[in-house]
Design brief:
By secondary structure, the chain is mostly beta strands. It has no helices and 9 strands.
């Protein structure tokens, strides 16, 4: 996140015109990218990156949904490959990418 705290819920997605892969964020903000098989990574190339992050809907004390809407954790521009403005070049040596995103206004 823009304040340095990790995003701990959501997906990081990598996309070209012909290929898509994604990684599910973990509690420490890390992710492993998968496309066809778990943790299989992605081939070298230039990718648009977009990120989804949301808090789960809230339950009341009796287990009923108090607020059925998920609360977004990242600004909406990052949720679309055409508006996120994030691109990366991945080569055979690439092991990690960290991204700075803004919170919703």
């Amino acid at each position: 996140m823009e304040d340095g705290t990790p995003l701990t819920r959501g997906l990081v997605c990598f996309e070209t015109d012909t290929y898509r892969a994604r990684g599910t964020l973990t509690a420490d903000g890390t992710y492993r990218v998968s496309s066809e098989k778990a943790n299989d990574g992605i081939p070298p190339g230039t990718y648009k990156v977009y990120i989804f992050g949301a808090e789960a809907p809230v339950e009341d004390t009796e287990g009923r949904m108090r607020d059925a809407r998920a609360v977004p954790l990242v600004a909406v521009k990052y949720t679309n490959p055409d508006t996120s403005e994030i691109t990366v070049e991945i080569d055979a040596k690439t092991k990690q990418f960290d991204f700075q995103v803004e919170k919703p206004k």
